[in-house]
Amino acid sequence: MAETLAIRTARPRPVPWRSILLHLVIALGAVAMFFPFYWTLVTSLNADSRLDSAPTLWPADPSLEAYATLFTRLPFARVIGNSLLLAVVTTLVQLFTSATAAYAFSRLPFRGRTVVFGIYLATMMVPLQVLVVPLFAELKAFGLVDTYLGALLPTFASAFGIFLLRQAMNQVPTELDEAAALDGAGHFRIFWTVMLPNIRPALATLAVFAFMGSWNSFLWPLVVLRSPEVQTLPVALAGLQGQFTTQWDVVMAGSIVSILPMLAIYLFAQKYVIQGVANTGLK
């Protein structure tokens, strides 16, 4: 018996080839996804960058001259401030409108609720390109073209945000609402003290998506914002290719500047995003 146990103990464990292969594929995928960002950073630090040659893995003479050009020869600080203003306001307003509408669809029984919610979700299938002309004509009639408010108004409501928060609110037990109602709480108090604290991961997820959507928005700001004083970052980046056709280090420096805020926000809210998507049942 002891000899049998000794033989079993001494037997070498099989090599987990499947696990090794899986981790190798994941590592290769991570490198493939990270390399364009790394090459963009290296190009922004190399003053003699050219796109018709092989990618440089390390700058021969690292320099921040391209970043200095962005903020001295161009009003890039104003552009970043414009994008930041629009993104923050859009995020805050979308959180408010989406949360209140989601509470109504989740907790307030009214006739035709399912039909109205389905129609509202159907608006997600309408692309922005279809709405650009009527939106522009409407804002022009109200004198809101080339203004911050004109750029913000179409972004104040989000069908995706309402869907995301409604799914999260449906996961909150109704017993909590009933207990709060027995204590004399009305809908506003239930919404503020019961519902919102229980859907914080979903709120963080929507905040990241809303901020990212506004920060990267190109078509609508290009159409409605005409003056350089109100120009946003994606539009300014597109203009860099025309002003600095051969200075790719300046173009790449602008790309790095546009990436850094989103990277910082996502790293900060990553756990909330994953938890929010898991709790709402989205895949």
Walk me through the structure:
The protein is mostly helical. The chain has 14 helices and no strands. It folds into two domains: 2-63, no CATH class; 66-280, MetI-like (MetI-like fold, Orthogonal Bundle). Helices cover 73% and strands 0% of the residues. It is flat, with a radius of gyration of 26 Å. It starts with a helix and ends with a helix.
Protein topology:
Elements: H1 2-10, H2 17-45, H3 65-72, H4 76-107, H5 113-122, H6 128-141, H7 148-152, H8 159-170, H9 174-182, H10 187-198, H11 200-215, H12 219-224, H13 233-243, H14 248-280
Helix pairs in contact: 2-14, 3-14, 4-8, 4-11, 8-11, 8-14, 9-10, 11-14, 13-14
Strand content: under 5%
CATH architecture of the largest domain: Orthogonal Bundle
Return the CATH class of the largest domain: Mainly Alpha
Chain oligomer state: single chain
Rg on CA atoms, Å = 26 Å
Would you kindly provide a brief summary of this structure?
It is found in: Cell membrane. It is built from 14 helices and no strands.
Write a concise keyword list for the protein shown above.
MetI-like fold, 14 helices, 283 residues, 2 domains, mainly alpha
